[in-house]
Amino acid sequence: MNLINIFEQTPQEIIIIMANGNPGAITFILKAMEIAKEIDPESAWNFAEDNDFPAYGPLINADRCDIYGTDLYVLWNDICDRSIINSIALLRATQLGILDHNILKDACSRQDYSGKSLINVEDIYKKVCEELPSFDSINRIKK
């Protein structure tokens, strides 16, 4: 649906739109924006050269998938067990064609944890890392 426009809206307006009143979604959004440049340096939407500009990559990918509010919280909390990195990986996977955005949207819309069975998070994370060698490279080196 594309509700956000990073060139016309402030970061606060974007957070409000994406969170849709869900405090858990706000927590996810703030954490994702904080680490997205480090986790996904190849994302064109992270504007890595401008440290004053927020990292919008995960939010733009969520927006393209029509994942907002409670669904965004379900992605982070239920499907990815509160892993910001895995959440960013799943959203990036939709952009890369690794994961169909309709499947992710369906999984995130289920508030009974049943959406978790629709997605193999570990497998998709690995595929994103194969496609983008710099994705989460700091943490992968530590493993």
State the main characteristics.
globular; 143 residues; mainly alpha
List strands and helices in order, with pairings.
Blueprint: H1 11-19, H2 23-39, H3 57-64, H4 69-79, H5 84-96, H6 101-108, H7 121-131, H8 137-142
What does this structure look like?
- The model has no long low-confidence stretch (mean pLDDT 91).
- The protein has one domain (11-142).
- The longest helix has 17 residues, at 23-39.
- The chain is 58% helix and 0% strand.
- It is mainly alpha-helical and 143 residues long.
- It has helices at residues 11-19, 23-39, 57-64, 69-79, 84-96, 101-108, 121-131, 137-142.
- It is globular and about 35 Å long.
Unreliable spans are none
Radius of gyration: 14 Å
Write down how many β-strands occur, each being a DSSP E stretch of 2 or more residues. Answer: 0
Secondary structure category: mainly alpha
* Average of pLDDT: 91
How many separate domains make up the residues? Answer: 1
Q: Alpha-carbon distance between the termini?
A: 38 Å
Which descriptor suits the 3D outline? globular
Total number of helical segments?
Answer: 8
Helical residues, percent: 55-70%
Strand-residue proportion: under 5%
Order of helices and strands: HHHHHHHH
Q: What profile does the largest beta sheet have?
A: none
